[in-house]
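User: Show me a protein chain along with its predicted structure.
Assistant: Here is one chain, sequence first, then structure tokens.
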Amino acid sequence: MKRKREGTDDTAGINRVRAKSRQEQTTDGAANPSTVVPARGANAAISGMDSGLLADYVAQRNRRFGEHLSPVEVEDMRIPENAILDTSGWAHDRSLQDLPSFLEYFSRGSGTQGDLSSAPDTPGAPHTLVLTAAARRAVDLVRALKPLQPNDAIIAKLFAKHIKLKDAIDHVKKTRMNIGVGTPSRIVDLITEGRNLGPAWLPSSLTPSLGALACESLQRVVIDCSFLDQKQRSIFDLRETQQPLMQLLNRKELKDRYSGSHVPVKLIFY
């Protein structure tokens, strides 16, 4: 029996999403997902998933790559449905050129605060993080988000390619940024940076940190999951990107603010 190619075992789930009917919406920027023409190199199924389906999709990937974990441990990694912003009504492609408009549209009335083009006063404390699978894609995302860059701050590149961790730490600590764009593994490194608070025996994911990258102003985490690489794989289809992504999303700084916080953090799947 031939093995399935990695990234194809969710076909049944994708078909269920495509089959699910929704009412036509008429508000600005919203439409029935079945009318959306997907961009080339994009996973069209993501655009049709509401919060519940996305939570189930992420849980499925956790089970796939968490074969060494117990069922209880896998369940503890589950992202709550109410942490995920429903973006299934977006009427346009999930393309690079549409990303700024997408973020502006779904930042209104989502429980988050402030102007996307303004930056917190604290260096290294963005209000938005954009997570993607590879450095090359991160460069493209930074370029696409330039219309949202303020005059007195930057959209930060937070990835490892050609940038040593020590240099990245020094840069982040002294730089004001409204949006940080990078890979999950580098962002985890910048958040932890070896200065965790709390008993040494506690896992780093359960303790707050005083790393270079601060989460105090964070309001939204954007996951670039529609994008497919040349082998048709997304950020959730590769162990080396899925696992650090889940490590980040399950950090105490974020998980405590998915619900019941006066400054919530919302997860946005693009």
